[in-house]
Amino acid sequence: MNQIRNPWKQFSSFQYFVIFLLLGVLLGTIYANLFQTMYAKSFLLFNAEQLTNQLSENVNATELFFTCVIQHLKEFTLLWILSITILGRPFLYLQTTYKGVLIGFLVSTFTMRYGVKGILGFLSMQFPHQLILVPLYIFSFIKAYELNRRVYGASGAYRSVILSESVKYIPLIIIILVLTILASLLEAYLNSGIILKVMLSLQ
User: Fold this and answer.
1) In Å, what is the CA distance from 110 to each residue of 36, 43, 102, 157, 172?
2) Which string of b and e fits 42-63 if b means at least 16 CB within 10 Å?
3) pLDDT tens digit string along 57-90?
4) Mean pLDDT computed over 115-126
5) For residues 67 and 59, what is the distance between their CA atoms, to the nearest angstrom?
């Protein structure tokens, strides 16, 4: 008798990432368009003149750097800790979907406020630090997904499997730490100036 195959098992970790990211983008775009009247007044937040005035003030880059480091490391730490628990894969799916929602919502918001040029406004908020963080998150998603699958697919004592598998990821964790610090430096010391120039062009 032929067994019914679960089509979800045929997807790779990267395919799961793409699926849930696109799902989030779709949801974020729908939300932005359906409920734009509810937050129309909030569009003032994206007013170029107001934003540039705020960015023109003195920004404590050092304080911003430590804030960025803590924020990004919290995200990666939670991702990796949960990857060795039963919540690992559901968390990866939800986190990726959430990121997609933010992308869809912000892109839609900027384009509704500034037209096609709004895409530049969105991209200015992501450059240059996301050139490091995006590939790093995708890589972490794939590796954390594989770690979770090995931990729960292996035979033997649960704790010993976690320990043996986790040790293999120590060099990767160190690389993530270094790249996160580098991305935070770029975000704290370069991103504000880029946003300022781009938003000035939108006025």
Assistant:
1) 12, 9, 12, 51, 36
2) eeeebebeebbeebeeebeeee
3) 566 888 889 999 999 999 999 999 999 888 999 9
4) 88
5) 13
4 close to 78: Cβ distance less than 8 angstroms: no
Residue 105 vs residues 31, 32, 47, 94, 108: alpha-carbon distances, Å: 7, 5, 16, 16, 5
Angle at the Cα of 84 (from 79 to 86), degrees rounded to 5? 95
d(CA 184, CA 132): 10
Share of the chain above pLDDT 70, in %: 79
Identify the CA nearest to 64 among candidates 138, 129, 122, 140: 129
CB 186 within 8 A of CB 129: yes
